[in-house]
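Reminder: ligand-aware prediction takes two inputs, not one.
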Amino acid sequence: MKVAVFSAKRYDRELLAAANAEAGHELNFFDDLLEPSTVVLATGCGAVCVFVNDVLDAEVLAALAAGGTRLVALRCTGFNNVDLKAAAAHGVRVVRVTEYSPYSVAEHAVALILALRRKIHRAYNRTRDGNFELDGLLGADLHGCTVGVIGTGKIGRVFARIMSGFGCELIGYDKFESPDFEQMGGRYVPLRELAARSDIVSLHCPLTPDTYYLVDAEALALAKPGAILINTSRGGLVDTEAVIASLKSGQLGALGIDVYEQESDLFFQDLSSSIIPDDVIQRLVSFPNVIVTGHQAFFTREAVGTICATTIASISDYAAGRRLAHEVHAGG
Ligand code: NAD
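Here is what comes back for the chain with nicotinamide-adenine-dinucleotide:
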């Protein structure tokens, strides 16, 4: 099958090509994001393979369908960037990678917490400069902390289990409660209670109209003074301006993010020689108690290997007319 692969980085090209060795699909790699101005590149391709920041709105989906595309293969879990109703209306089917190492993202969330809590990022810079002073590096134990897990799905539960190993108390909030979370000692509480009681809040729910700006000024005002907020899920879950205000007032003690509302203009690119016009991210990275990573939580050998294998298998299933095990449907 002829496939247009968008947002293709060097590692995508190498690992997708390796996963495709036996299947033999014709993969056409493009550095570009899929968006209205680049959709023409997919003309004549039965499938497009896309990532988190590619744009699959009604306009792009209509153009894809007109060019002969009938399958969108997302090489990620989240599908908030796809207008599923428009896809269905144009007869375009959508598959994603429903599961790949949940450990990759959960462990990255824990890495952010440990770094912030023990000021590892600051110590790293200091010692490289020959400064071995401890002043300003006072940390705090994780043992005994209350950790609020918002979204206790696959990643949230792995995260919760790790934090329980540190001796943390687990409280959770989810639309659909999981007995596994309770079996590991977690207790479900209303969202407001979670916000008020947690020393650390970690977001692991999807971005939907329900969860957009779940963390806004009102939620932040409830937060325990000095609390840490971790977002490895999707940027739109958090009102970044409100977070900046809360960091400035000292209510929020630290922030670790792997995702950012406006990340599509920044992430996955080397902008180190450019003037970055986004004042919000520039303000965020200027705080000593903020760590930003560029959507790398999924980026482990194990996770990327599974993503590529699942994506190629879904394309092969579609080409052979088999059932699509990882299909996403409008309306859930
Ligand atoms: P999952 O579907 O297993 O779990 C999501 C959980 O969120 C479910 O338990 C669901 O019931 C819950 N949920 C849904 N709506 C909710 C709401 N309104 N309020 C509270 N909870 C709600 O998904 P997962 O595999 O654990 O992934 C979670 C999210 O992590 C994904 O949606 C994606 O956005 C993000 N993610 C990020 C990266 C990264 O590299 N940073 C990689 C993979 C996934």
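Residues 8 and 14 are 10 Å apart (CA to CA). The first strand starts at residue 2 and ends at 5. We will return to this case in the review session.
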